[in-house]
């Protein structure tokens, strides 16, 4: 008789070593995504409590989370081509509220306070509850600086999201700070950790520079796909 461990070995021969190949956006999808993000972008509301969050709307929503100073607010400005729409700062812990923005009444973007160093201690309760219960939330983007790699605070948040079955995609920020070779090595290292530990991680890690505008169309296309907005 075949034992359980033999059956397991046979059916699941080895642990996943790398993300499966997911095709990136085509050039026509990138062009459409680029155009979409030129629709008028507006600030909707800031929320410091769940009661203040804009009522569940029918439009798809994506949220940006990550350690303080990782580049969340700058990325939203980059995506919507508006330098001053979201306030940014070189001082960590700048964004203190959940800030909601909308693009052309079709897509909602949420900028979050950072976690980790110099963040508010209360990150967690309210934000996690929002992430767990928001009906129109289509994907969570977790921003990571490839120069620093995954920190304990990142893996803790990913575990919380995994525990709630919430899908997230990793975006590497400030890629302008690294040479191509160093960036590729850092990305490979981060991916190998994600493959091992991050159960609900979308199997495609993107890289962006809000400073140089690199990678923004790929992220725009990924957001539109996640939001099921036709491309
Ligand atoms: N080199 C470089 N610097 C960036 C980039 N994006 C953001 N920064 C800088 O990083 C710092 C933090 O940017 P923010 O966008 O305010 O970061 P945040 O994640 O919103 O920070 P908190 O609100 O404090 O959590 C600022 O000094 C930005 O100018 C980038 O793509 N490249
Ligand atoms: Mg911010």
List the helices and strands and how they pair.
Blueprint: H1 4-11, H2 27-36, E1 41-47, E2 61-66, H3 72-79, E3 98-103, E4 107-111, H4 125-133, E5 137-144, H5 152-163, E6 168-172, H6 180-197, E7 206-207, H7 216-226
Parallel strand pairs: 2-4, 2-5, 5-6, 6-7
Antiparallel strand pairs: 1-3, 3-4
Helix pairs in contact: 2-7
This protein binds guanosine-5'-triphosphate and magnesium ion.
Question: What features would you describe in this structure?
Answer:
This protein has one domain: P-loop containing nucleotide triphosphate hydrolases (Rossmann fold, 3-Layer(aba) Sandwich). The termini are far apart. A seven-stranded mixed sheet has the order 1-3-4-2-5-6-7, sandwiched between helices. Helix 2 packs across helix 7 (216-226). It has 231 residues and is of the alpha/beta class. The model has no long low-confidence stretch (mean pLDDT 90). The protein is 33% helix and 17% strand. The structure holds guanosine-5'-triphosphate (GTP) and magnesium ion. Residues 66, 68-74, 88-90, 92-95, 113-114, 173-174, 176-177, 209-211 line the site of guanosine-5'-triphosphate. Keywords: GTP-binding, Magnesium, Metal-binding, Nucleotide-binding. One of its GO terms (cellular component) is mitochondrion. This is GTP-binding protein 8.
